[in-house]
Amino acid sequence: MTSTLTVTGLSASYGLASALKSIDLRVEKGRCVGLLGRNGAGKTTLLKSIVADPEITVRGDVAIDGRSLRKLATYKVARLGVAWVPDTRRIFTRLTVAENLDIARRRGVASDQLERVLEAVPLVRGLLKRAGYELSGGEQQAVTIARALMSAPDFLLLDEPTEGLSPLIVEQLQASIARLPEIFDLGVVVAEQNFRFVTDLADEVHVLETGEMVWSGTPELLVSDPDLVDRHLSVGEK
Ligand SMILES: Nc1ncnc2c1ncn2[C@@H]1O[C@H](COP(=O)(O)OP(=O)(O)OP(=O)(O)O)[C@@H](O)[C@H]1O
């Protein structure tokens, strides 16, 4: 079923410090949307605002098919089908990977969900009996994504999934994430500093700079405009 997550006129702040201004975003199920921006641009804040992180004060609206999520607690947003994978990759280190996945399955989710998730994120299959504390950073990232999928969400928000990972594992994660929208009829939002990762994956890209959305379009358009990339995304002297 088609479903759309919409962010309308969203402004966000930490106490008195403004972090986002007038953001509009639309994510449809079955599509992948990329968020790019330098350090501190507001990518994490946007994802946290969508999941109603209590640390952030928000104006504007976040809704799924017109139903506002604004006044809901974070756990209720999750119940409505929005899964968030923060950049901290927190897994339960004393539990096995299988146990980490098992506790994330929502009531009512089909019993074959584990098998579907393992097919989608094959890296996790060989880790099921391992304890969380034994995993490498890349393996933890794969497990946190798999765990989020166990709740059969409609929307998956990924914050910096490639941070600190080796090129080989980034390639494996990219291959997995690329297939998620179609396999699970899922809307994916990927916030990243890794330009190539996002432009390879996303159907549509938004560029944030100091809390504002400064550019939106297709990855092809962004890749073909080095001046634009230099202006908004390159790091170093200007
Ligand atoms: N807990 C916080 N308290 C106060 N200000 C914060 C907090 N977290 C982030 N900020 C500020 O909000 C702004 C946006 O930060 P945010 O983490 O969303 O950026 P980002 O694009 O995700 O950056 P990065 O790629 O470095 O993670 C920055 O100015 C940052 O300093």
TrEMBL record:
Which residue range or ranges hold the ABC transporter domain?
Answer: 5-235
Q: Which UniProt keywords apply?
A: Amino-acid transport, ATP-binding, Nucleotide-binding, Transport
Transmembrane annotation, as ranges: none
Where does this protein have coiled-coil stretches? none
In its UniProt record, a GO molecular function of this protein is: ATP binding
Entry annotated with the keyword Transport:
yes
Question: What's this protein's family per the entry?
Answer: Belongs to the ABC transporter superfamily.
Q: What is this protein called?
A: Branched-chain amino acid ABC transporter ATP-binding protein
* Species this protein is from: Frondihabitans sucicola
